[in-house]
């Protein structure tokens, strides 16, 4: 009799991204040492007061930095790349 595996998504009741990124990972070290909070003050005047909220300037800078470090020049490829890497998602997720 031929067997068949039925795939079903599993519901994670507890998942912590930080526990999945190794301590020696470059993006973990960047997150722990790089303080980009000054970007909020420095870019505040460049944003309007009306309309939809923009992307967080710290996250935007981190995306650009990731593109530089990974040698990715296409915005679409960068977003696709970042969505597939847990260490990069961990790095992007903080606005320290």
Automatic annotation (TrEMBL):
Cross-referenced InterPro entries: Transposase_InsH_N (IPR008490)
Short name of any one Pfam family annotated for the protein: DUF772
Residues annotated as domain Transposase InsH N-terminal: 16-93
Superkingdom classification of source: Bacteria
Name of the molecule in the record: Transposase domain
